[in-house]
Design a protein that fits this description.
With 104 residues, the protein is mainly α. Helices cover 66% and strands 0% of the residues.
């Protein structure tokens, strides 16, 4: 069994908390969309592009170049990470799907 030292475990927790805080801050800013200036709207458009790049990067990490096995997880593909991303991006009740469908 491979256990992490308490120091490494704490470091992982801090890293996760930092990412969640970063996402919370972005979500908080998005909640104020009714008071956005034109510059805010332009920043939001750029943010969408940045977020798509992030999602693409995670999807690329979890592809299956080795005959049905996830490159990162080494489990059967689609792995849990890929399935979760798919479920979240394709949820018909979320804005991402609504925005994409408007453009089709």
């Amino acid at each position: 069994m491979n256990t992490l030292s308490p120091v490494v475990s704490d470091a992982f927790k801090l890293l996760r908390q930092d990412l969640y805080l970063h996402l919370d801050n972005a979500e908080f800013l998005a909640a104020g969309y009714d008071t956005w200036s034109e510059a805010d709207a332009e920043s939001a458009r750029a943010l969408i592009q940045d977020l798509v790049t992030v999602v693409r990067g995670v999807v690329a990490l979890h592809d299956a170049p080795r005959g049905g096995r996830c490159r990162t997880c080494d489990g059967t593909w689609p792995c849990q990470a890929f399935e979760t991303i798919h479920k979240l991006l394709k949820d018909p009740d979320k804005q991402f799907v609504k925005i994409v469908n408007q453009r089709s």
